[in-house]
Please model this.
Amino acid sequence: MGGLIMASTINADTTNGVVVTSDTSGEIELQSAGVTKAKVTANGLQDANGNSLRGGSFRNLIINGNMQIAQRSTSVASISSGSTYNTIDRFKTVLSSAGTWTQTQSTDVPTGQGFASSLKMDCTTANASLASGAYNSIQHYIEGQNLQQLAYGTSNAKSLTVSFWVKSNKTGTYVVQFLQNDSNRTIVKSYTISSANTWEYKTITIDGDTAGTINNDNGIGLEVRFGLAFGSDFTSGTLQTTWGALTLSNFAVGQVNLADSTANYINITGVQLEVGEGASDFEFLPYDVQLQRCQRYYQTISKMAGYSGPTTSGLQCSIAYPIQMRATPTISQSSVFRFDDAATAFTQSSTGIILGSTNNTGTIINITNITVNATFRPHGKANTATLNLNSEL
Model:
C-alpha cells in the first residue's frame, strides 16, 4: 500500500557518498511539490527548461554581448565595405560587395529577457546577385590569453556553447563560424530562423579542438563570426562542421543572402560563449564593468591637462589612460580642440597632433595648429573634440 512521503533524508556512506542512477530516460529530476525545479542530464545540471546551471563569474567569453556599450555611435549609415567597428563595441562589420547597410544600437529586444539593446543591420541598397568573393558578417574577436582554459591542442580540449537571440524578416539558414587565428583552423555550424519578424533563441555547441593552437598572448585567439551574406567562393563546398584547416569554399554553405532586398534586416543580442555543453542564462554585468572591458580596446578622452611648449605654436599634454589598453593604441583626433584660460580661449586653426612617448598606459601628445601664450596652463577643459584611442584586435 503506497503512501505520501512528506520528507526524506538520504545518508551517504563513507566510501561512495550518495549515488543516484537515472532511469532509461537518462535524466534525474529534482522536484518540489511535484514540480521539476532542476534535473541532471548528460550535459550536466540544468534547470527545468533545460538551461545549464553553470556557475562562476565572467563565464561569458564574449564582451558586451548584450550590446549595451556603443562608444563610437548609436547609428551609422551607408556601410558598404571595409572591416570596421561602427556602433556596438567589440562587434565588427566585415563587408565587401554585399549591399549597403545602416547599423544601429536598437531598442528592439526580446520581451522579458532583461535586454535593453540589440545590434541591428538594415539593408538600404540591395545586391541580389552576389559576386563570387562577396561577404558580409558581424565578428567578435577574443584574446588568446583569455582562452587558455580551453586546452586546445590537447586531449582535454573543452567544448564551447554559443547562445544568442536573433530576429529577421528573412527566414532560412544562417551560419556561425569559429576561426582559430593562430593555427588557421575553423569549424562552422548552421542555425535556422524559422519565423519572420520574431525573436528566436539559438544555442550551438562545438567540440574542443585537440589539434588546434591558441597562443597565450594578447592577439586574436578565436573569432566568432555571424554570417549575413556570402558569394560562391565561400558557399560552393561542403559546410565544415568539424575542426579542420580553413577552406574558404566550406565556410558558409547554405547561408541565405540577407542582402537581396532592402526590406531585409537582422537584430541580434544576448550573445554568450561559454565553456561546456549547454547554454546557461545570460550573464549580465554591471554597466561600469562592461564599459571598462570595452575600453581595453577603444576609449575616448575629452579632457586633458597640459602646458605650453617651448614656443607659442603648440601645446603639450601628458595623458594617463583611464583603463590600460590591450596594446599601444592608434590615436586620432575627432575635431579641433578649444582650451579655455580664465580670460582667453585658445582654439586650433585646424586639427593636428604629434605623438610623443606612447604605450598602452598613456601618451605624451603635442597639439599643433594652436597659438598660446608662454604662461598658459589649461585646467583640463577641451570642448567638443576628443582623442580616440584604438587598440582593437
The mean pLDDT is 89. The radius of gyration is 26 Å. The chain has three domains: 1-50, 75-294, 296-390.
